[in-house]
Amino acid sequence: MIDSHCHLDSADFNDDRDEVIERALAAGVEHMMAIGTGDGPPDLEAGVRMADKYPAFYATAGIHPHDAAKATPADLKHLADLLAHPKVLAVGEIGLDYHYDFSPRDTQKAVFIEQMQIAAEANKPIVIHTREAWEDTLALIEQHWTPRGIGGIMHCFSGGPEEARRSIGLGFYLSFGGIVTFPKSLNVQEAARSAPRDRILIETDAPYLAPVPKRGKRNEPALMVHTARRLAELRGESYEELCNATTENFRRLLLLN
Ligand SMILES: [Zn+2]
Ligand SMILES: [Zn+2]
User: Fold this and answer.
1) Neighbours of 109 (CB within 10 A)
2) I need a surface site. Which of 23, 66, 209, 236 has the fewest CB within 10 A?
């Protein structure tokens, strides 16, 4: 399995990061993609630091919508430079978050659009974070991204079958995380059931969103087995089929580019 999205640079892992990675490998999580949003700009190298230190890691770099208001032209230049690193596979997580509104919405949109342009110039996929902002997110992607034909990931997919259908139509893969194991996430489960097999990925978003039966605890990549089991069950596939499909999809989108 490949964990398409985790934040193991987080201080939550300062006491036992090496052990957490050992447990991931022992659980069958061969690779992890370290999301390089760090503490926000100017710290854009959080993912690169992980990928340089640990062979099992790939990385992204990007400015989270929460931090959009902090982004300077120098940060955007730095981001573009980081995309030359051989283990930086994508730009992310980027997008819109209207739940917290930590940055003004117009600023979130502008920084999202600028990062799509930077990703396009480097021919790298994008990793999308969207919260309570589906309409604006999909509209900006349709206008600024899909015509480029590069694709991307809807991280921690939290929509239903309709958002799934629209995202896939715009060239995206759906990455399912712990939410799909929560009993009340019926909409997300319905999306997981109906999503085409060649467009699904799996992730932890560790340290956040631990799957049942560890819900509420610190999440880590080894716990992804619970998410994978639930996803396989929902889709009527074997655990092995699900793991193989998501791994193959990750490679197609991110490694064969
Ligand atoms: Zn996110
Ligand atoms: Zn994240």
Assistant:
1) 20
2) 236
Using the mean position of ligand 1's atoms as its centre, give its distance from the Cα of residue 229 in Å. 22
Q: Residue written as tokens 């730095």?
A: 78
Which ligand is nearest the CA of 130, by number? 1
In order of 8, 169, 209, the CA distances from 159 in angstroms are: 25, 14, 16
Closest C-alpha to 90, from 69, 62, 66: 62
Give the distance (Å) from ligand 1 centre to CA of residue 23: 23
**Cα torsion at 183, 184, 185, 190 (round to 10°)?**
80
pLDDT bin (cut points 50, 70, 90) of residue 257 is: low
Partners of 181 in the β-ladder: none
**8 Å CB contact between 196 and 173:** no
Ligand lying closest to the C-alpha of residue 204: 2
CA 12 / ligand 1 centre spacing (Å):
17
Each residue of 24-55: pLDDT tens digit?
999 999 999 999 999 999 999 999 999 999 99
- Which one, of 32, 37, 36, 35, lies nearest residue 55 by Cα? 32
Q: Are 228 and 30 in contact (CB under 8 A)?
A: no
Q: Is the pTM of this model over 0.90?
A: yes
Distance of CA 52 from the midpoint of ligand 1 (Å): 23
Q: In the structure encoding, which two tokens stand for residue 100, read together?
A: 């917290």
Biggest CA pair distance of the chain: 48
3-class SS shares of the chain: helix, strand, coil, % to 5: 50, 15, 35
Neighbours of 72 (CB within 10 A): 10
